[in-house]
Design brief:
Blueprint (H helix, E strand, L loop, with lengths): L2 H22 L38 E12 L12 E14 L32 E14 L7 E13 L4 E15 L7 E15 L5 E14 L9 E15 L2 E14 L7 E15 L2 E14 L6 E16 L2 E12 L8 E14 L4 E20 L2 E21 L2 E14 L6 E13 L1
Antiparallel strand pairs: 1-2, 1-18, 2-3, 3-4, 4-5, 5-6, 6-7, 7-8, 8-9, 9-10, 10-11, 11-12, 12-13, 13-14, 14-15, 15-16, 16-17, 17-18
Length: 445
């Protein structure tokens, strides 16, 4: 991509934001008010035939279009220890999500990881719902341009859906599917972009025979497919089943026991095929809208089909927590310790300890800031030989970054962010440092 094209894209980003501010909503409407009279409940159109907010818009709505635009600068595009290369990257991601019945909140927040067995970094927490039925669908393509490395320009895709149904007899069904076509910078000191496809499908069945007891069965299917031949040793399909038994100890707190089985099968690299057994005891809490989460502790076993690798076992844990200290301040924390799948063909498994902490502070109705911190440790099972040195690889990765957020309208958010990343490895070739600055605009109806 030429410099002129890059400048043009940034100009389009800024002008688009200006257009929406000046044209789409020409008047500065105070929060909580609309520019048209309120439509009576249950009506889709006003007398003039315009689509009402409960069908299309910010007040609820069946249809929610959105547009995300970002430009960022990074000083180490490939996460390398030397020969660092900087670049500007511009992303434009339009999209739409639908809800039936109408809903103003996005109903699915799931991110897959190609190294996580079953595709999910942490277990799904089924949200409580008083509705009998809820459905949701979202699709978004993302167009990405590189300023100096135009060979990496691409279009990524994401589609996801959710269906929930609650029956009178205490039985509920939750079906979810997410498909991704993504591109990621190779994370092993190789200067390339890796394209892959993945899909996670999950079915949750829960039955509550009494106020105190609840039982749940989860089934998850995950498949991963890399496009480049050099990465096809990572292609695999995971099938997992989890069984839960919950006992309510307080009105908003439940204890549970869990057993989970995962069958991990590689398409070509069958030496890494394995079966995992995980046993947990834990607690879920949803005390108020300001404090909810899950903690579980247990034991895991990873049995490889290849007898040379034998069996790995040990302690396993997971924590998910969201807490609001006040209407203006909240924090979230996610942490886990378990085995993950390897991204390199010389290691048959990775013992990973990960954590992600986020703090949000609101200063005014329009201004807020966040601070995000990430740490994870990867202990690769399998020996490496680099420059005549043979040992197991161990990496510690850190990331910290603040961001400033401005919301001039209910439907618009502008973010200016920075983060610093660093990896310390016992092999120097895998060390890196990275600084990234970003400016993004998100428009949502």
């Amino acid at each position: 991509m030429t410099r002129k094209l890059f400048v043009l894209l940034v100009s389009v980003l800024v002008l688009s934001a200006w257009f929406f501010c000046q044209g789409a909503f020409a008047q500065d409407i105070p929060r909580g008010q609309t520019d048209t009279p309120r439509i009576p409940e249950g009506q889709a159109e006003d007398a003039g035939g315009r689509i009402g907010a409960e069908v299309f818009g910010r007040q609820g709505g069946y249809v929610h279009p959105f547009l995300f635009m970002e430009t960022k600068y990074t000083d180490n595009l490939y996460y390398t220890n030397d020969n660092e290369e900087s670049d500007f990257i511009t992303s434009i991601a339009p999209g739409i999500w639908l809800a039936m019945p109408a809903n103003r909140e996005k109903l699915l927040e799931v991110n897959t990881s190609p190294t996580s067995p079953g595709g999910l970094q942490v277990s799904r927490m089924k949200p409580q719902s008083t509705r009998r039925m809820q459905s949701y669908f979202m699709y978004s393509p993302s167009v990405v341009y590189y300023g100096d490395n135009s060979e990496h320009d691409h279009i990524a895709h994401r589609a996801e859906g959710l269906f929930q149904y609650n029956m009178d007899m205490g039985l509920s069904v939750d079906l979810m599917d997410q498909f991704n076509n993504r591109y990621e910078i190779n994370n092993n000191a190789q200067e390339r972009l890796d394209e892959y496809y993945d899909n996670v499908a999950s079915l949750l069945l829960s039955y509550q025979p009494s106020e105190k007891f609840k039982f749940r069965v989860d089934y998850t299917n995950y498949w991963l497919d890399y496009d480049d031949r050099a990465n096809q040793f990572r292609n695999r399909m995971d099938n997992s089943v989890a069984l839960y038994a919950f006992y309510k100890v307080r009105p908003k707190t439940s204890m549970f026991v869990q057993y989970e089985f995962a069958d991990i099968e590689y398409d070509e690299n069958s030496l890494f095929d394995s079966k995992e057994h995980r046993y947990y005891i834990g607690a879920d809490w949803d005390i108020t809208a300001d404090s909810r989460g899950r903690v579980k502790l247990g034991y895991m076993e990873k049995d490889f089909d290849n007898s040379e690798f034998g069996e790995e076992d040990g302690f396993s844990a997971e924590l998910q927590m969201l807490h609001s200290f006040s209407p203006k301040r909240n924090a979230s924390l996610t942490a886990y310790h378990r085995y993950t799948e390897s991204s390199i063909d010389t290691a048959f498994a990775v013992l990973t300890t990960g954590s992600n902490f986020s703090l949000m502070q609101r200063f005014t109705p329009k201004w807020s800031a966040t601070m995000n911190m990430l740490y994870y440790r990867d202990e690769y099972q399998g020996e490496f030989t680099i420059a005549g040195v043979t040992r197991e690889r161990e990496d510690d990765t850190y990331r910290i970054g603040p961001s400033l957020i401005f919301e001039p309208r209910d439907w618009m958010q502008v973010s200016l962010g920075y983060y610093f990343s660093k990896r310390d490895s016992n092999f120097e070739v895998f060390d890196f440092e990275n600084n990234t600055v970003s400016l993004s605009i998100e428009l949502t109806l």
